């Protein structure tokens, strides 16, 4: 019975391994088929060129022409731009590149914001200084009044004696 059992076990293992090999082959074939079908679908997809009407082309051309024009009255590069750009203007002139049409005002904005903040802090400090001065005067007056009251009390007590 042991020999028979070993034979049966070997046979079962062989059949199982054969079925695994067949399944692996089938899955590989399925994967290949799926990839091939996706490639066929992608090959079928064709991007159609966008049709632009004549009116839209004219509108686009008019916008481009409007923003591309520089009037005769304006000087290019703009006069005085190097002074406002500072070091960046020097770099641009050194590189022989024209400066931008618009000024970068970020630095100016930051400087102005800091100036405003300093002015506000200065004003607050002045107000606090004045309030402290007033408070010192009030304290001084209160101290004098207390001294006078104390003096009157002592004089009154001395009279009674």
Automatic annotation (TrEMBL):
UniProt name for this protein: CCD43 protein
InterPro entries per UniProt: CCDC43
Superkingdom assignment: Eukaryota
Annotated Basic and acidic residues bias: 125-148
Ranges where the record places region Disordered: 125-161
Organism whose genome encodes this protein: Zapornia atra
Compositional bias of kind Basic residues: 149-161
UniProt-listed PANTHER family: COILED-COIL DOMAIN-CONTAINING PROTEIN 43
